[in-house]
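Hello K.,

You asked for the raw outputs rather than the summary table, so here they are, unedited. I folded two proteins back to back in the same session to keep the settings identical. This is the first:
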Amino acid sequence: MRKICIVTGNRSEYSRLKSVMQEIKNRPDLELFLIVTASHMLDDFGKTINTIKENGFNVDCVARTIAAGEDPASMAKSLGLCALELPTLFEINKPDVLLIVGDRFDVLGAVTSAALMNIPIAHIQGGEVTGTIDESIRHAITKLSHIHFAATEKSAERVRKMGEKKEHVFNVGCPSADIIKNIELGTREEICEKYRMNPKKPFLILAQHPVTTEYNEVKHQIRETLSAIHELGIQTIMLYPNVDAGSKDSVAEIRKFDMAKKLEHTNKFKHIFFEDFIKLLANAACIVGNSSSGIRESCYFGTPAVNIGTRQNSRERGKNVTDVGYDKEEIKKAILSSIEHGKYKPEYVYGDGGSGKKIAEILAEIDLKGITQKKIML
């Protein structure tokens, strides 16, 4: 039986691992070993370790890997904490494969540790193109990884062009699509009542995270967005930003707007269950901000998305996405235009489900002999 170690550190990452974790649990030839780190343990970010447990997964180990400060130096220290804590857990529990997803800075600490310890690494969502420091981290993880689970064919081709073995690169789609394709959406009235909104009126979803490579501009950027939301006066569901450098400044601006009673039509949440988020997304008039969900998940419902700034630069997207800059008037215009347009035709940009099962099957059957001895393939 192969022991598959999964390391997860934040809510968005977990939503893309959940179906894979379940499929690993379902297989008699695989053992799921789960390490929970980073913002999953923090109250300010919803303490989402509780969500993982409520979903029926056993948390085998925890590692507290976030350095306080929410600035670039704190991010670097957090990476170091991850690299300090995880080798001991790897050494004691001896996983056969480390499975990680995406491009988070703390994941890089886990991957580096595993690579140095000759643990085969499987990476979900390599080969994608975006903005901010995530772009560099993602490609660094690709070069440290041995098995690649790309979400689109374009991404898979980029991984191959980076010199990875073709036989170890798989286009499996995005695991979050598994949840989207199988979820019972219920009624608009039910989800609106749960999140304190009038179902007869349109609502927005706002999720805007700091862009770490534009750290000194974070306050201005969120202020322009909040001003647009305030002036439009449309009921809004807002998710607080993630733990990236600059989130403290973003939250401070949100509180200023709150104190000035400029967000009275906005319901704010540290965390929303992914299934509920999908139900909200399916019924929203528009999703606004720079979350990858505005690109990756919105296309499945044709929900208009106003993508602000550079964080999702060049990420593959559907026709439902409108790109704007950090300008209040531009944001307002794009939101109103999106609402007027209404829903777009759904597009399955990141696969049509079944990703978790495909990944688990490959992890069970792939030959691991000599896989950690990497060589660039030209």
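The second followed immediately with the same parameters:
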Amino acid sequence: MIRLGVNIDHVATVRQARGVTYPDPVAAAALVEMAGADGIVVHLREDRRHIQDRDLAILRKTVKSKLNLEMAANDEIIAIALETGPDMVTIVPERRQEVTTEGGLDVETHFDKLKEMTKRMHGRGIFVSMFIDPEPRAIAVSKELGSDAIELHTGRYCDAATPDERQKEYERIRLGVEEGLKHGLRVNAGHGLNYFNIKPIARLAGIEELNIGHSIIARAVFVGLDRAVRDMKALIREAERDADAPA
């Protein structure tokens, strides 16, 4: 059964737009968990554009499911992660100019840094995942790094302009799941997934977790967080039932 991790960064984005104390992502996390989410995801960026240190510290004390910290291989953020002790860290690329994460992590170029970082996280008992493009080499290197899991970047599939392009990107993800499992890695996926494109990805056997944020928070503006999370969970369950149904 695929788990749903809900990224609550954009609750903090609304708060930071006015520099006020609301809406509080900590309160959002509690509502999301009560709606059935299997984990809370936050990205503590170097520029602190949305989630703040205070949020992470309180979430560590209040999240009842699983706290997944997305982070760059930045020395300051590494120190905060080691001190805070989330259940899991997902290592992502990060550029100050980007609107959102633009692609997978370059695990080869940053191999030594990532290997040392992974070792330190494991020493703290923290599960480690690499956010990568669904490419065989990136998957193999993630295994060499000692990563416990990979999260396959689904952004190109979600942004595909034509059905043929979308099918091509879907196939890359499908093969990426198979490759990850072959290497003994747990396989997650995320980025850009929404209520209209989620089902094909959720039908893929071997994916353990889907991490989704922006589309859920956007839907919550109209229907509330509880309904938005439950609707996404329902689509994932429908996709899993479809995949299990006899041909």
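The first strand starts at residue 3 and ends at 7.

Happy to rerun anything if the numbers look odd on your end.

Regards,
P.
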